[in-house]
Amino acid sequence: MKQNRKTSSGLGQLLIPLVALGILIVFNIFRDISFFSIGMRVNNAGNIVLTGNLISIIDSASELAIIAMGMTLVTAACGGQDISVGAVGAIAGAVFVKVLQGMGAITIGSVILAFVLCCLATIVFKLFNGTLVAVFKIQPMIATLILYSCARSIAYWINGDATPQLKSSIISSIGKTIPGIPVPTPIFAVILVGLLLFLIFKFTSLRLYIQSVGINQGAARLNGMNPIMIKLICFILLGVCVSVASLIGVCRLGQLNHKTLLVDIEMDAILAVAIGGNSLGGGRFKLSGSILGAYIIQMLTTTLYAMNVAPVNVKAYKAIVIIIIVVAGSPVVKNKLTALWKRLRPVPVPEGAEKEG
Amino acid sequence: MTRKVITLLIALAMVFALAACGQQAAAPAASGSADSGLIKVGIINLDPSESGYREANVKNLTDTFTKENGYDATFVTAPTADKQLEAAKGFITAQVKYILVSAAETTGWDEVLKEAKEAGIKVFLFDRMIDCDPSLYTAAVVSDMRQEGETAVAWLESLNLSEYNILHIKGQLGSAAQIGRSDPLTEKCAADAKWTIVREGTGGDSWDPNEARKIAEAAINAGETFNIVYAENDGMAGGVVEALDAAGITHGVNGDVIVMGFDCNKWALRELLAGNWNYDGQCSPFQAAVIDEMIKTLEAGGAIEGLNELNQIISVEKGFDATKITQEDIDTYGLGE
Amino acid sequence: MEDGIVLTMRGISISFPGVKALNNVDFTLRKGEIHALMGENGAGKSTLIKVLTGVYEKDAGSICIEGCPGEAHIHSPQQAQNIGISTVYQEITLCPNLTVAENLFIGRTGGSVVHWKEYEKRATEILENLGIPARAKQELSRCSLAVQQMVAIARAVDMNCKVLILDEPTSSLDDKEVAMLFRLMRDLKARGVGIIFVTHFLEQVYEVSDRITVLRNGELVGEYPVSQLPQVELVAKMMGKSLDDLAELERIGQKSAASEETVYEAEDLSSSECRPFDFSIRRGEVNGFTGLLGSGRSESVRAIFGADQVTGGQIRMNGKSVRISKPHDAIRNGIGYLPENRRRDGIIADLSVRENIILALQVIRGMNHPISRADAEAFADEYIEALQIKTASKETPIRSLSGGNQQKVILARWLLTHPQYLILDEPTRGIDVGTKLEIQKLVLKLAEEGMSITFISSEIEEMLRTCSRLIVMRDRKIVGELTGDDLTQAQVMKTIAGGEQAE
């Protein structure tokens, strides 16, 4: 009974994703060691940039990693997922581009202003979701289904079907590389968002609040917390994450296409959260797990592309590997492994002792 | 309680959605009078937010069937078959003279088309075919996706390269556009030893440019050399170009890699004009002029010519070459803004 | 196997990382016997039961069961059930939204075609046979907790069980329901079922059991016929203390004198769950709300804390008017509340002991002023030490602690906030005697230091020992207040009964 709910704390949660990542790396080492080679090249804009699969993976996973972080928070506090992140991301992109176009010239100032406004718009939509979930206590999946199905239409209303182009060195600096810095900018965005959340968790006790609300909302309330507020804060943070991801998505291609911006990212984000060992039922969470999950998903995709797997088979292979990872991280398998571990190591270790009277 | 709220919200969402549709799908009430000398037509199309293609298509029709051009036209854009059928029945009741249809679904139209025929209304199909007896419509103005692919491959062949090493980015697997654009290329590659597909991938169901970029990156990182990018729509071609740029591989008119896209979005044609890309294949949404001409012929008592056994007129799809494209072409044929 | 014996467990040992949970324990159950398994929290009762039901794999020892030649190998609860061992847990494990009949037969109908009509008929027979006051077609959630438990027992009995394990079956039942349950237990005993009865209520053990096995610290203390083991001796054996130590139980009856200062005062306080009432408490006073289950005693203190929706009333703290409409207000005004249902309202199961301890203090400080890790660890260490909380470490998730230790953690959580007024609703429920005593002593010590405390317990004796004033409730109304010499069991009973009827 209780045994099944046993989840290991500390590094234990990251064990499966780390092993998965390790296996992917070992697999690629044996398949083709050059997979990991990193080189320097001059890109067409005349800048020196780093190239190689590893850079590709870390760069391409940026949007996913950022959204997975936000998704982790909402999952932890609400015990459910927001499936409208991709669609609302399209709105964020549409607002960003609309504002930039409205102001004419693309300057650092106008980009910042456009981003701030796009952030605000996204937060408004996320608060709509948050209110349905926290105040009206609607299942997150249902509550966010509304925006999931109509947000891309809203993005269309904002910008028409124009596929607007943004040609500017500022835009390409955000989405690609800053002249003089060989590392793709989106990687810095992940670090920045990660750092922002890290600082929030360091200088506030939000983590404790989120976990308490996610584990036992009633008890959290009796201890003076406001579960509604905590959930809304998580949705706001998710909104910021979506805005940043959307900004990267738009700047990467230098154009806005409301149909393809951050398309299908919600499912990958949920997957990243799960692969990272976080419970989709809420409660304890580890952001690092979700980030790791995002990189695992991207590494898997890139590996399949590098192996030149036929397009029809890519999704199937991806599914097989992900099923294996998720099953390996399931409580049942974990407990079996723990039992096996215990049998192999007869010496008792004073960690995670369980005592029942 | 929760259930009630959900129901309420879903209901609200539906009302919202309906209202949104309603903006375009206004009841096809027959306005205007017969004695004004205008030709009464009812036009049924899909929702413009579906794609850039559709938006251009809707715009093309509204720009052509105007009062100035001698028409009293009513437009209905609806995303589903039942709404379209309803609209068609409305047009029959309103006794329009011509009905123009781009159907959401290929089946289920027989009854309505028969009704229209009995009422003496002539029906034109555009863009999409309907599964029915060809006698039920006067003419169908449609695109041939395969022809688009053939045009592109023929253009590529005309370059007379010594080697064709192709990065092939497919669209949504199984879609008519993907099959039509892929088949001529794969057939050519199978037949000609000079032609090789070094890598192939897909942007998935949403024709995702980002996915195309990742595939190209993986191919470049794996050390594959290719001199042609054959992407089945403009967005994915754009994604590949990003990967080329990042890797410092030149492309376009004087570049190492030839870039090909489809759909003729304005932004893509501008890339052609700037010499960054080499080719863009058209999928013409401009059927209005052909239909306009046919109606005018019928009104003048003439007969329509040039139909095939299925009563079809296949739109001739252009392929634009970066070395020949002009700003005028972009303004005339480009989609979107 | 000896005649008349259904189950023997010999030399059972099991260890968990860092803990030897059971060491060479024997247990024998006879046919038609109610056998109480006693011990303090952490003594190994649950572990022994989990070994028996196949939840845990034993490291050593043997289990033999009647009708099973040789040793029985039990690797899962399903297997245990197949050889005739059934368990009914404290928490109901049936499906609340199915009918009684469906709950009785679900999962063991065999075949894919189910004739529910027939099963309903059989269910009715079983219910009548066992005297369970429920109808076959009734939805289970509409039955009282006691009846739900009896349905679970009926299911087990109908599955031909030879050994029925009842794990804390009475902890959420009132006296009448307990009596009903005991009737059923005696009935089953007469039919030859061997019953293992795990409980914390000593009186109940003496009321219904034939034999007692006592465990302490994972070891067997002994097996005794009830008639040969007086209650005091049982307690002494469970605690491993001599009778002299127990005299303390009586000595703590010395109540401290409260000052005249009123700390908390409510006038016409009402909530969505309780009618308006007046209440006040002085500095250093320990008072209690008493009454039958459902009399409104818990609802009243929930209203004080703002746990339910407060609908009216004036509140003054230290003479100043304040507004308390939600728990946060109460906490900021220096009120602490240890809820009645520890599992549901108290613990944050997956969080560590440390996090559970600092929770309320963190809320008082506010989200933007986090308690540093070092401080939090110091607080946790301090209270683990002060309250003798038995935990592997301060980072252990609270859910893996025993009930009594969980309760101590919650208590630590509130003590850390240094409240002026602390409400303890059933702090000793489901806790072993030793810890109960510790908590009572702690309450008196805190009161002496000036804290005002409201203490609620189902065990009147316990309240009589600690409270200087008892507020008696019946039917969600205050019907009396007892102080001084009136604080006797008889007087409380009389007040609850209202002199007229027993309910």
Question: Would you mind describing this structure in some detail?
Answer:
The complex is a heterotrimer of chains A (357), B (337) and C (503). Chain A has 357 residues and is mostly helical. Chain A has 15 helices and two strands. Chain A starts with 11 loop residues before the first helix and ends in a 13-residue tail after the last helix. Residues 1-10 and 348-357 of chain A have low confidence and may be disordered. In chain B, helix 5 (145-158) packs parallel to helix 6 and helix 7 packs parallel to helix 8 (234-247). In chain C, 36% of the residues lie in helices and 25% in strands. Chain C is built from 18 helices and 19 strands. Chain C has helices at residues 45-52, 77-82, 100-105, 116-130, 145-158, 175-190, 202-208, 231-239, 243-251, 297-305, 327-332, 342-346, 353-365, 373-386, 403-416, 433-448, 460-466, 489-497, and strands at residues 5-16, 19-30, 34-38, 60-65, 85-88, 163-167, 194-198, 211-216, 219-225, 262-271, 274-282, 286-290, 310-317, 320-322, 335-338, 421-425, 452-456, 469-474, 477-483. The model of chain C is unreliable at 499-503 (pLDDT under 50).
